[in-house]
């Protein structure tokens, strides 16, 4: 008898969960819109709410087990929330849009709290009142960077300073061949000296691991300055203090920007005077006549750009920014991700391949541009470049170039032609260590198909960003966790009544289908192959059946109190899933109509219950 009931429970579990792999299959042939998913999810949530209320809680109430089932529901909810939290920290939140949104909201909330603590550790903000600090924190941007990405180059205008929230950052010294001078960890601040002097960055910052940064820029500070007298007075006092002997900013100006002591003190007093008059901080700007003159020369000296119409030529030229560097300083080292195109206006630079055993050193002089191929292909620099003399040069940042491509069809056309006609295949093989077949595949699949949507990214292709095994396992475990309560519920009801109501089966089926649709779409967006997604849902369907059969075996000789407790735990966990993920996600995607659709799902389950009882 027990065996036959367990088999029945297994097949009922399979039927209720067959909509899971079915939903995954649907996403393979059809990508449902967000609103479609929302409506289905709300309808299923309404049906499941009815089933939980009428088929699980109501019988326990009639049998006098209201307190026991309530305790079980609370325990089930807390256990689910705890396990769900642990899995989310390992990447399990990616299984659903709702859990993804919730995870990032919670992370932002924690980051804001940590941000306050970090700012208070800085001398300049230590005495600020809570209101000014909160205004400052509200204006700060959160920036995520990948391992190997340059956060700022030496010579970049310091529009921001940074607080390291997560990860590791190395600060490199161009005066010492870009050797590491310090390694920063969580809570450390960098870029402050250039920011508060308004001069260009004198060092290079590069992410050694994936990092989360808090970015404080001039707009952020100046906006708060207009409202906060506390911050205004704090900054005035800061510059008065820093203009005296043996202070951080004076030392920075003398060592990194070669000011004399008198020049440095006068410079800081000028900043203080500007702050006093205009109630704002200001970055250094280059004279307009110098900018226009150099841009004109730049446009005339780039042979692969000359064919552009004058309007597009001006657009391209104005994307460049002017820089200077002292003799002996290193511009960049080989094997660093390229994110800038360089054009040398005056002076001479040496360049060499650090992996070339011959030690051959070559030179670029005024009018040359370099780093082109690595820049255009999103590759790592093959050469190390060092200033032989004092140099003046221009840089075009990759993110700026991407915006220019969107605006200029002529620029896209010229660039395509340049890449196709240049010896890119040879470059990929000799300088980027690709095999000849790999080089051909990359050119065919990437370069010729990415314009104008985005720039090619060879580094991303060589090291594809796919979910780690642990993240995929966490996602699967999260899906499995969501399915445990319903399988135990089916097993428990089969033990008690040797049957499961049609309304419960229908509620589970209808709630599972949109969940699989939504989660499968989210998982595919993470780069998980479809086969692995389908197997995750198919295995969950099997485990639902096995769990239902296990519930029969586990509860077949349980007393009423134990049964009520277990049933309450399962129902509490399912109600938590509905409230925490299904309904918030449905409302987020579908809007105000979701309440009405949820009611329709509830009434549909009621109709099934009425049919079942007649």
UniProtKB/TrEMBL annotation:
Alphabetical UniProt keywords: Membrane, Transmembrane, Transmembrane helix
Transmembrane segments: 6-30, 37-58, 64-87, 490-510, 530-555, 561-579, 591-611
First and last residue of the signal peptide: none
SMART domains, per database record: cNMP (SM00100)
Gene Ontology CC entries for this record: cAMP-dependent protein kinase complex; cytosol
PROSITE patterns, sorted: CNMP_BINDING_3
Residue ranges annotated for the Cyclic nucleotide-binding domain, each copy included: 124-242, 304-405
GO molecular function, one term: protein kinase A catalytic subunit binding
Matches recorded under InterPro entries: cAMP-dep_PK_reg_su-like, cNMP-bd_dom, cNMP-bd_dom_sf, RmlC-like_jellyroll
CDD domains: CAP_ED
Protein name: Cyclic nucleotide-binding domain-containing protein
Pfam families referenced in this protein's UniProt entry, alphabetically: cNMP_binding (PF00027)
């Amino acid at each position: 008898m027990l065996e036959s009931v367990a088999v029945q429970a297994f097949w009922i579990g399979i039927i209720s969960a067959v909509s899971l792999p079915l939903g995954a299959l649907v996403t393979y042939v059809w990508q449902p819109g967000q609103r479609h998913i929302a409506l289905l999810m709300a309808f299923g949530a309404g049906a499941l709410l009815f089933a939980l209320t009428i088929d699980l809680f109501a019988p326990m109430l009639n049998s006098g087990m209201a307190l026991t089932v309530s305790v079980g529901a609370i325990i089930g909810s807390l256990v689910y929330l705890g396990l769900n939290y642990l899995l989310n920290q390992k990447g399990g939140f990616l299984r659903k849009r709702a859990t993804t949104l919730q995870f990032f909201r919670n992370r932002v909330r924690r980051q804001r709290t940590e941000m306050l603590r970090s700012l208070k550790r800085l001398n300049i903000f230590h005495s600020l009142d809570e209101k000014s600090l909160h205004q400052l924190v509200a204006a700060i941007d959160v920036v995520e960077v990948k391992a190997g990405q340059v956060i700022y180059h030496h010579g970049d205008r310091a529009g921001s300073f940074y607080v390291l929230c997560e990860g590791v950052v190395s600060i490199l010294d161009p005066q010492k061949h870009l050797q590491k001078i310090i390694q920063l960890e969580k809570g450390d601040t960098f870029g402050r000296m250039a920011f508060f002097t308004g001069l260009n960055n004198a060092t290079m910052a590069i992410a050694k691991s994936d990092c989360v940064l808090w970015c404080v820029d001039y707009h952020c500070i100046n906006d708060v300055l207009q409202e906060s007298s506390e911050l205004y007075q704090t900054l005035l006092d800061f510059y008065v203090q820093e203009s005296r002997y043996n202070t951080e900013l004076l030392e920075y100006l003398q060592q990194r920007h070669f000011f004399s002591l008198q020049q440095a003190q006068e410079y800081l007093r000028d900043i203080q005077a500007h702050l006093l008059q205009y109630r704002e901080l200001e970055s250094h700007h280059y004279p307009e006549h110098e900018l226009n003159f150099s841009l004109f020369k730049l446009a005339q000296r780039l042979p692969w750009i000359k064919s552009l119409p004058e309007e597009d030529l001006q657009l391209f030229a104005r994307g460049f920014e002017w820089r200077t560097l002292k003799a002996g300083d290193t511009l960049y080292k080989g094997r660093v991700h390229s994110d800038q195109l360089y054009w040398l206006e005056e002076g001479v630079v040496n360049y060499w391949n650090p992996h070339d055993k011959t030690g051959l050193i070559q030179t670029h002089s005024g009018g040359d541009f370099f780093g082109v191929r690595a820049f255009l292909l999103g590759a790592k620099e093959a050469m190390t470049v060092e200033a032989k003399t004092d140099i003046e040069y221009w840089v075009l940042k990759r993110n700026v170039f991407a915006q220019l491509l969107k605006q200029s069809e002529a620029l896209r056309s010229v660039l395509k032609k340049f890449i196709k006609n240049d010896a890119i295949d040879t470059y990929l093989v000799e300088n980027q260590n690709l095999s000849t077949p790999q080089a051909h595949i990359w050119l065919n699949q990437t370069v010729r198909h990415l314009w104008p949507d985005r720039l090619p990214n060879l580094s991303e292709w060589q090291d594809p960003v796919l979910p780690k095994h642990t993240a995929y396992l966490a996602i699967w475990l999260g899906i499995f966790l969501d399915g445990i309560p319903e399988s135990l519920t089916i097993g428990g009801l089969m033990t008690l009544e040797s049957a499961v109501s049609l309304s419960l089966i229908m509620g589970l089926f209808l709630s599972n289908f949109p969940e699989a649709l939504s989660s499968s779409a989210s998982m595919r967006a993470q780069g998980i192959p479809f086969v692995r997604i389908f197997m995750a849902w198919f295995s969950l369907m099997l485990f639902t059946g096995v769990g239902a059969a296990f519930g029969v075996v586990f509860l077949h000789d349980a007393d009423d109190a134990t049964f009520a407790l277990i049933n309450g735990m399962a129902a509490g966990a399912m109600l938590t899933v509905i409230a925490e993920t299904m309904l918030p996600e449905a409302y987020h995607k579908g809007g105000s109509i979701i309440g009405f659709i949820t009611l329709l799902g509830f009434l549909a389950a009621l109709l099934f219950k009425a049919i079942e009882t007649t």
